[in-house]
């Protein structure tokens, strides 16, 4: 599997302040494998250990009793570093964009992992502990998919992922669609480490942090934006042209309507939990639920003097914003009077009672 060429690709290994510079993902993966072999040693001897700490710089990840989970996590550091390199190269061509002003504390924080990645393509159950190889493997499925005949002599490329019946006329669209199953990200902010599925979303991430321009105001809700593109994307949320046949809900796209129908009007739950009797409507909800059964992984707060720890990345992020960031969790701001709230629900109540606003028919909240 050859690495897609990146000009001047160079990523520094930060495992235990190593400093090794890799120029391909193969080289970086082999190098990380050496670190893990040295750190973990004999797997039989490791069975007696209780915890495995990640030695990556500024990473507080701690796996309890699972060396396999540490391996997955360590290889994701390599992948994350690659995405941050891609982001840094992209931003060199966009000097007009503002700098990211989010805290660098999350630069080395990664989403909680698992014991590996499982391909759910039809008749394939391959597993991987390295995200780079997993995403390339899935892409091979996409590239090898053949056109199938639909009605009236039309042909399409079908997604053969478990529980999915989507199809596309163009291979590029199928490739994009697969990211909804694999959660693959293509680029990351080199400052805060946030990952995105497209270059445009990285640019939007930075643009949203700029000061809004008074002339770029939404005519529907009076909210101001720092760019015309962000304003246009926002206005689309007010223009709902696709109506649900089962209720008063209206959506901006057919894809959004399909999701609405699945969650609001269908009882089918094809994704069962392996640890309890609960079932879910999509793979992502199942993955989030599985975290409650994971009593091994522990995240420790990286702020000096704070001994807080938890079992999920989301909980740790919530703790940091609530306790350590200036302003705490007050992130929902009323666009009319400027009052700030910690929860979207309280902002909704404020808009309804204080300003007597109403959301569109079929919706349960403001958008």
TrEMBL record:
GO terms for molecular function: DNA-binding transcription factor activity, RNA polymerase II-specific; RNA polymerase II cis-regulatory region sequence-specific DNA binding; zinc ion binding. SMART domains: ZnF_C2H2. The keyword Repeat applies. Residues 117-146, 157-186, 216-243, 242-270, 271-293, 332-360 form the C2H2-type domain. The keyword Zinc applies. GO terms for cellular component: nucleus. GO terms for biological process: negative regulation of DNA-templated transcription. Keywords: DNA-binding, Metal-binding, Nucleus, Repeat, Zinc, Zinc-finger. Pfam families: zf-C2H2. It is found in: Nucleus. PROSITE patterns: ZINC_FINGER_C2H2_1 (PS00028), ZINC_FINGER_C2H2_2 (PS50157). PANTHER family: HISTONE H4 TRANSCRIPTION FACTOR-RELATED, MBD2 (METHYL-CPG-BINDING PROTEIN)-INTERACTING ZINC FINGER PROTEIN. This is Histone H4 transcription factor. It comes from Oryzias melastigma (Marine medaka).
């Amino acid at each position: 599997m050859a690495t897609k060429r990146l000009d001047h690709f160079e990523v520094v290994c930060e495992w235990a302040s190593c400093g090794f510079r890799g120029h391909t993902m193969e080289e970086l993966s082999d190098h990380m494998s050496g670190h893990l072999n040295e750190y973990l040693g004999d797997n039989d001897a490791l069975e007696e250990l209780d915890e495995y700490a990640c030695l990556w710089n500024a990473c507080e990840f701690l796996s309890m009793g699972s060396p396999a989970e540490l391996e997955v996590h360590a290889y994701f550091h390599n992948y994350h570093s690659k995405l941050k390199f891609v982001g840094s190269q992209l931003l060199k061509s966009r000097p007009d964009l503002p700098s990211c002003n989010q805290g660098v504390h999350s630069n080395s924080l990664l989403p909680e992992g698992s014991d590996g990645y499982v391909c759910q393509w039809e008749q394939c159950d391959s597993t991987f502990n390295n995200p780079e190889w997993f995403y390339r493997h899935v892409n091979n499925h996409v590239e090898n998919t053949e056109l199938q005949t639909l009605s009236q002599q039309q042909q399409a490329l079908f997604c053969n992922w478990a529980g999915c019946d989507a199809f596309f006329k163009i291979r590029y669209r199928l490739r994009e669609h697969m990211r909804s199953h694999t959660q693959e990200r293509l680029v990351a902010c080199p400052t805060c480490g946030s990952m995105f599925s497209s270059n445009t979303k990285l640019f939007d991430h930075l643009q949203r942090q700029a000061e809004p321009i008074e002339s770029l105001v939404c005519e529907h809700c009076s909210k101001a934006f720092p760019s015309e593109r962000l304003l246009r994307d926002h206005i689309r949320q007010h223009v709902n042209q696709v109506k649900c046949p089962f209720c008063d809900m209206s959506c901006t796209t057919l894809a959004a309507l399909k999701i609405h129908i699945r969650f609001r009007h269908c009882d089918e739950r094809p994704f069962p939990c392996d640890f309890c009797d609960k079932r879910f409507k999509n793979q992502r909800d199942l993955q989030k639920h599985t975290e409650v059964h994971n009593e091994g992984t522990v995240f420790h707060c990286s702020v000096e003097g704070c001994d807080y720890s938890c079992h999920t990345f989301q909980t740790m992020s919530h703790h940091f914003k609530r306790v350590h960031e200036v302003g705490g969790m007050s992130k929902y701001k009323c666009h009319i009077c400027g009052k700030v709230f910690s929860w979207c629900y309280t902002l909704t109540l404020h808009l309804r009672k204080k300003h007597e606003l109403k959301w569109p028919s079929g919706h349960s909240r403001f958008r």
